[in-house]
Amino acid sequence: MELIESLDLSLNQLNGKILPSFSYLNFLNHFNVSYNNLTGQIPTSIQLQSFENLSYVDNHLCGPPLTKNCTTKGFSTDITNNGGSDEGSKVNWLYISIVIGFVMRFWGVVAPLFFIESWRYAYYQKLNLVGRKLYVFRATIG
Predict the structure, then answer these.
(1) Which of 21, 40, 43 is nearest to 51 (CA)?
(2) How many CA atoms lie within 13 A of 74 on its CB side?
(3) PANTHER family this protein is in (predicted)?
(4) What is d(CA 9, CA 32) in angstroms, rounded to the nearest whole number?
(5) Proportion of the chain in helix, strand, coil states, percent, rounded to 5
(6) Is residue 8 within 8 Å of residue 32, measured between CB atoms?
(7) Is 139 exposed, middle or buried (CB count within 10 Å of its CB: 0-12, 13-18, 19+)?
(8) Fold of 1-82
(9) Residue ranges covered by each domain of the chain
(10) 38 pairs with which residues across the strands?
(11) What averages of pLDDT result for each successive group of 10 residues across the chain (142 residues)?
């Protein structure tokens, strides 16, 4: 593995830290981990720190070659999203709103039928009437 010349892991939704073993890749000419969710300090090596900042874009990384400095406890800067895409939370809110809409509509129909007796009787009479009409229709056709 130490003979790898090119490694492009961009846009792979990777989480966690860059492993220190990447610093042993001495023949690496191209390295890209941009647009993932990596955190922590970039391992110290001449090879990894020689790549452009674009190789580490849209991650929560710190240390050279980036301008974010690391402290012993973590980052000295915040890890807010700096103008990157926020698609992950949009997808989550979409599913949450679908579930909330379904629950509200479901209970908007079921709750009155459950609690208001006159609505319940009217609903089941209408349902019974539709069922009888379907039965008569089916009996006359075939």
Answers:
(1) 43
(2) 5
(3) LRR RECEPTOR-LIKE KINASE, LRR RECEPTOR-LIKE SERINE_THREONINE-PROTEIN KINASE FLS2
(4) 6
(5) 45, 15, 40
(6) yes
(7) exposed
(8) 3.80.10
(9) 1-82, 87-141
(10) 16
(11) 74 82 76 85 77 80 81 50 49 84 92 92 95 94 79
